[in-house]
Amino acid sequence: MKIMLLTAGQGTRLRPHTERIPKPAIPFLNMPLFLYSVNLLAELSPRQLVFNTFHLAEELKKTVLSSHLQQKITFSDETILLGSGGGIGFARDHFQEDPDFILVNGDEVIIPKENQQLLKAMEQHRKSRAIATILVTDHAGVGTKFGGVWLDSDNNVLGFGKTPITGAIRAKHFIGVIIFSKEIFKYIPQGESNILYDNIMSAIRQGSICKTFDFKCEWFETGSEKDFLHATENCLKIISRNNEGADYLQKMLEIYAPDSKLIIQNDGIFLVDNSSEVIMSQLSGNVIVGHHSQLSPACQIFNSVIGHQITVTRQKNGVTVQDKLILF
């Protein structure tokens, strides 16, 4: 099994942070965002990961390679931004050996609620002989904040978007993962395209079947700084309260951020790397502190994320950092 990770985008809604750090490399709970996608798919034992690159490509490669992943790593370097469909088409030579491959966004935070769901999704995909099986979940924002995946009574995909489609009986939320038959390449021309609205819809119009698989999970939006901080708060609460998904996140931390320590106090929940210089009384609310960061004793940090190798300096009257994402 081979995996394509979409990691070329510019992350415009998370600027200015993404002007210096590619979004998939931004630390979430002290782990690069792309690792959440890699870890999610680990149960399929993929042998190769293909990352497409464009925006801050060298920074992305540095972060990926420093993560010491076990799979073969390949980069598909785009000279212009090709979109989700065009990026797959440009990398098609990597996906000709196997009948199926998986596409995943490289900046999703997905916490599965059950084990072996991807194995079940793969089994369903192969039995249905669908050209694509889209992983979906329920979400209150479908049709308003997010476009939905619109389905008929037989669970066939009819289309995408916020507006209901004729014949559809319900809409689901796309979580950023699709299982593809390699036949999809027939519907991906050269150049820029969107995998949902252009390529999958072209296949459906020409008679191909596209299905969905209901994936039981917590899915978190990280597109804006506000969303990122809200997702951070929710994930810290999952771990501290031992809610569904806590074991999954704890295991990720053990593998990818073993020096990060979870600290639960009356005034907050903190995830602090052991190499950082910080006094616990400086922190309140939900706080993340990355590796080798330094906080001046006069600083107070509230509901914020301090990235790796950050120095928050003392000012005349001290400094309070509240509801902030500080990455450089």
Layout of SSEs?
Blueprint: E1 2-6, E2 27-28, E3 31-32, H1 34-40, E4 48-53, H2 57-66, E5 72-77, H3 83-90, E6 100-105, E7 109-112, H4 117-128, E8 132-137, E9 148-151, E10 157-161, E11 170-181, H5 195-205, E12 210-214, E13 217-220, H6 225-240, H7 246-256, E14 260-265, E15 268-273, E16 283-289, E17 294-295, E18 299-302, E19 305-306, E20 311-312, E21 319-322, E22 325-326
Parallel strand pairs: 1-4, 1-6, 4-5, 8-12, 15-16, 16-18, 16-19, 17-20, 18-21, 19-22
Antiparallel strand pairs: 2-3, 6-11, 7-13, 8-11, 9-10, 9-11, 14-15
Rg is: 21 Å
Gross morphology? globular
CATH class of the largest domain: Alpha Beta
CATH superfamily descriptor of the largest domain: Spore Coat Polysaccharide Biosynthesis Protein SpsA, Chain A
Largest β sheet strand count, sense and barrel closure: 9 strands, mixed
**How many domains would you count in the coordinates?**
2
Stretches with pLDDT under 50, minimum 5 residues: none
Binned strand content: 25-35%
Please report the distance between the alpha carbons of the first and last residues: 37 Å
How confident overall, as mean pLDDT?
94
The structure class reads alpha/beta
Q: What is the level-2 CATH architecture name of the largest domain?
A: Alpha-Beta Complex
Structure summary, number of beta strands: 22
